[in-house]
Records
---
Amino acid sequence: MPVVVLVGAQWGDEGKGKITDFLASQAEMVVRTTGGNNAGHTVVVGDEEFKVHLVPSGVLYPATLCIIANGVVIDPKVLIDEIDSLLAKGVTVDNLRISANAHVIMPYHVRLDELEEESKGDSKIGTTKRGIGPAYMDKASRIGIRMGDLLEEKVFRQKLMRNVETKNRLLQKVYGAEPFEGEEILQEYLVYAQRLRGYVTDTSLLVHKTVQEGKKVLFEGAQGTLLDLDHGTYPYVTSSNPTAAGACVGGGIGPSRVDKVIGVLKAYTTRVGAGPFPTELLDATGEQIRQKGREFGTTTGRARRCGWFDAVIARYAVRINGIDAFAITKLDVMGGLDKIKLCTGYRYGDQILSEFPISQEVLESCKPVYEEMPGWPEDISGVRSFEELPQAARNYLNRIKELTGVDLFLVAVGPRRDETIVLQEAFS
Ligand code: IMP
């Protein structure tokens, strides 16, 4: 099974970076397909921590071709900073390729993201304010600037000046904000274009050829199923489709080329930003999980909201993505809890719902139905096989398997590469 799509099965931050890194060690190509520098992966190699936002985590393997595909929105300044910091740590980026069709985040997108959030008052989405939404808006409005445009000065100038004119009208007339100077942006971005030119290519063709050759290709996930523009907890979502089908569109291949979809589930649930979260813990247990799990955003540093594992969400993610196997992350964080709760359904009025509700209003009023299981006091970070895990931890994992109907392929018991229990071959 050489083509694997990895997706987040909750609200993002499931620990996909570590799983991507694990799979990337076996893959010949890693493709990032959606989102932008709203995402952030932390990969730990030995004692070194690498934080990446745009560059696929596979970049740490020099022989793995790393693709930023057409579905991604790119802030070139952020990308160049990331490339420079990798180079400073001795990581080569010769294996990086960028799609000519990926859209570019411009300074006015970032400003509009901030202003739109501020104007929403109490109904803020809690975006990362990186300009992601406004860049995708321009893409859908068919006025966006793509990486390929940046490389053609005449085309770039023309598109940019037209956009700056309309954005300035919006900034001044609607928000009473300062306008942008088109020429300044042009000069700044032409420098970025020069720096990135050598990486830009037709990545869909590159992916296609690699798949045709039967090589192992990994589509790495960003964000998560519940943040999907179509299937997530709208309007508290991102502006792309970080689900398995979105990976095909964002990577430029057809769904029939995908062999396996792997979902990543954290052993508990977290979310950043606003929006409903049925199993949220606003007590000392939530705080304990946040501290032990270091649940603070890689991108914004915001404290993540923490709660119990939610099987309703996990089943929904299986349905939306067609998940074949799960990777469970951060099981070690649950160690030391007396009792562990698992949400098996939602109470809505006098009904028990086992399926994720389509209506946000219904979801907002849902209360979790819990099953309680004993916890385990042991530190499991040194465990490398399922059999060595404490019985209570095995019971917990088996229950997740039963409730979702999906096998587990890997369990992570710590952030380091070797703190991993492998249960199945991923590319088989
Ligand atoms: P945006 O993607 O910056 O527009 O933010 C929209 C929503 O998605 C906000 O609630 C963000 O907190 C959330 N979000 C975006 N990217 C991530 C991520 O990588 N992890 C978790 N939440 C994210």
---
Amino acid sequence: MIFIKNIKALVGVRESDRIEPLRGAELADMAVLENAWVVIEGDRLADYGEMDELGNQEQGWEQLQALESRADQIIDATGRFVFPAWCDSHTHLVYAGSREREFMDKIRGLSYQEIARRGGGILNSVELLHNTSEDELVRQAKERAEEIIRFGTGAVEIKSGYGLSLEDELKMLRVARRIGEETPLTVKTTFLGAHAVPMRYKGNQTAYVDEIINEMIPVVASEGLAEYIDAFCEEGFFTVEDTDRIFNAGLKYGLIPKLHANQMSFSGGVQLGVKYGARSVDHLEFTGPQEYALLAQSDTIATLLPGATFFLEMDFPNARAMIQAGAAVALATNYNPGSCPCGDMRFMASLACLKMKLTPEEAIQAATFNGACAMDVVDELGSITAGKRANLFITKPMSSYEFLPYAFTTPLVDTVILNGAIYG
Ligand code: NIG
């Protein structure tokens, strides 16, 4: 048993067994317990409470002594905060090498789409991945997994999409599964065969969509390698019609839709995602009142990826308007080599506060509870709730919980506990 005592404040406490995402004003409603303790038994967050409940100096600290004598490990968190581990619901964590050459092109003024049109971008990563062995991919992805754990992330969604052939897509998904088996991260996987049109289908996109539908989806599903199906629904990538066909086929095999939507244009992606009951539509830089209203009336989560918006130097989506309309907003990193080579959820929370005017409470809950909803793990993760899995992090001493998104590069995550075990 691990006993964490004298916690300055326990952040993101939720006493209910709610599994629906937080929307509207609920997102800011974050419970914080001051001067608190937590007990971890096995992989569970068994109990928590206020230090004062454990007795007092006059009557004797009876319960405190009982807990301390039962504990295998006692952590004194004086001056520190305990947060639920981040739930990062959109990443491309499995990729080969890096693409800093494109970073230079970008500095020289080329846009993401121009780089892609010249054969760079996603297709660059496709070639690199093709020439990298499965074990080497695991090694590289594990380094990133370890990096994000140290940032305080406990659950992550990982997409394929740098394979674009059956063999390489399966290779990616197997690597993602191995990250879930060989690290303490909870991993959910998404088949993203429709990430870009591979060279061999240049000028014949429909034939590639046919291959995704007829050859890739059945095998991905039968091997149980993915829970979700995704597409990059954008001009120059996949049309609404392509995506419609892909989702239709995926649903027949039990794959739940998620969607790269409205990143570069008003593509109709949000409308399509909502029509298919997608778990989430992600990016959403190009959205307006019509999209907000649709999202507010649906169960589809609006996942914002401010790291990519920042890196691509675009205008940020109007998250305030989305929240006000009643949409369920989540935050994720989109960790990938092209548009966001960063897996730090705290930085996403900082960007959400600074660039999209979320309050720290909204940003924290969008990056934990709503992220967990966007990966269907909220029954286990995403909040400090008795009975949930013990996935949390302890900060360095801080003046307030708002200090975390405020001091946006200070290494403040001190101890990470995943599945009830201290990491590292
Ligand atoms: O979510 N937009 C499409 N996919 C990624 C970028 C992938 C890449 O450039 O390698 C994204 O931004």
